[in-house]
Amino acid sequence: MSKDSVQTGVVVAMEYTLKIDGEVIDSSQGQDPLEFLTGHGNIISGLEREMIGMKVGESKDVVVVPADGYGEYDEEAYLDVPSQQFPKDMKVEEGLELTVRDDSGQARYARIESVEGETVRLNFNHPLAGDELHFNVKVVSLREPTSEELEHGHVHQGGHHH
């Protein structure tokens, strides 16, 4: 059964460029197209929704608002931590990105917003939170997922992970 347009439950290979405020933030240029399985939250919802119905070879500009992208910027998503809590050999400085485990053991992205004396302020907002995302996407190919991919809910890239 051939799939000729993007729909839920197919594996889409796409080339893409992401711009924020006219600046290229991310792009598949110079690498393999990004493959993802639709309907499983593999890519941000606002982009996936706009791609439904696209055909192979078709390209499209998509604007994704924060709510459908990486979320609104949360003014509350900060935490002040005493610097003694960081490993001694870690260079604690502004802009450093780290993964912090919360009380339930979930890994969360954080970056150091500021360091003042013994206090380190962490910002848990995704770097792209609150940003309007401008994508240009092109569908390169479509295929049926393997049963394993369907079971796991994501694409298996021929043994290598990006």
Name the features.
Chitinase A, domain 3, 38% strand, single chain, 162 residues, mainly beta, 5-stranded antiparallel beta sheet, 4-stranded antiparallel beta sheet, Thrombin, subunit H, 2 domains, elongated
Describe this structure in words.
The chain has 162 residues and is mostly beta strands. The protein has helices at residues 45-51, 147-152, and strands spanning 11-20, 23-27, 34-37, 59-64, 78-82, 97-101, 107-116, 119-123, 133-143. Strands 1, 2, 3, 4 and 9 form a 5-stranded antiparallel β-sheet that branches. The protein has a 4-stranded antiparallel β-sheet with strand order 5-8-7-6, with no helix packed on it. A hairpin with a 2-residue loop joins strand 7 and strand 8 (119-123).
Topology:
Elements: E1 11-20, E2 23-27, E3 34-37, H1 45-51, E4 59-64, E5 78-82, E6 97-101, E7 107-116, E8 119-123, E9 133-143, H2 147-152
Antiparallel strand pairs: 1-2, 1-3, 1-9, 4-9, 5-8, 6-7, 7-8
